[in-house]
């Protein structure tokens, strides 16, 4: 299972949509968590969600915490701080939430959490500041094929 992760506004859902259009089974972990009783308020029970996902065998899962699940490999979406700020502001995030997410991006929190679980060769960082062009998408597809059965 490939896990697409990244701070809010970094392009996870955009990339997941592209991959879904290409025929991959992509699951939104927030939706699965709500539907399967693995979410209380804003908190996700990662162990509960891991059990749900393990029974489903999806190709790809997506959420800002997906890298905490048992992934074969992880794709971490990233964008410039200006673009992240703009995207989060457009979504109506309050200033404190924007700053919290920018801090997480600046400190590479998701990358280091993924690195605690996976070897570096199984982590791909994708910059989505200027979108995802065909060349970048082809590189992502090669990475996915390398780590899926």
Layout of secondary structure:
Elements: E1 2-5, H1 12-21, E2 26-28, H2 29-35, E3 39-40, E4 43-44, H3 46-56, E5 60-62, E6 73-78, H4 81-90, H5 95-106, H6 109-117, E7 123-127, H7 134-146
Parallel strand pairs: 1-5, 1-6, 2-5, 6-7
Antiparallel strand pairs: 3-4
Describe this structure in words.
The protein is α/β, with parallel strands linked by helices and 149 residues long. It has one domain: Rossmann fold. It is 48% helix and 17% strand. The protein is built from 7 helices and 7 strands; from the N terminus they run βαβαββαββαααβα. The protein has helices at residues 12-21, 29-35, 46-56, 81-90, 95-106, 109-117, 134-146, and strands at 2-5, 26-28, 39-40, 43-44, 60-62, 73-78, 123-127. Strands 2-5-1-6-7 form a 5-stranded parallel sheet, sandwiched between helices. Strands 3-4 form a two-stranded antiparallel sheet. α4 runs antiparallel to α5. It is globular. The termini are close together.
* Terminal-residue CA separation: 9 Å
Strand order within the widest sheet? 2-5-1-6-7
Radius of gyration: 15 Å
Helix content: 40-55%
Task: Return the structural class.
Answer: alpha/beta
The CATH topology assignment is Rossmann fold
Helices, by number, come to 7
Provide the CATH superfamily. P-loop containing nucleotide triphosphate hydrolases
Record field, number of beta strands:
7
What does the overall shape look like?
A: globular
What is the architecture at the second tier of CATH?
A: 3-Layer(aba) Sandwich
